[in-house]
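Board notes (copied after class):
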Amino acid sequence: MTNYPKYKFISSTTKRITKIEDFKNEIHNDDYKIVCLDYDLNHTWKVLDELSQEEKDKCEFLCNAICPPGCPERKKHYYYNG
């Protein structure tokens, strides 16, 4: 981010952000254009309903997960399947 200060990054699901507070921090981080919600949280309806429209507009949902929920090897699986 230091070398490309105007480049907007995507916060990937491989980061395993599973705490809602951390997810919201990513959404409000101006370095990220899009924040991919960890798909273990895709069905946390109470939390998702509470997101503002601005927060929802910055979210991306992954619906074709290649790992089971809670997979500790997600980053490796994405590397091999990407």
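Comment from the instructor: The chain has a mean pLDDT of 84. Residues 10 and 34 are 5 Å apart (CA to CA).
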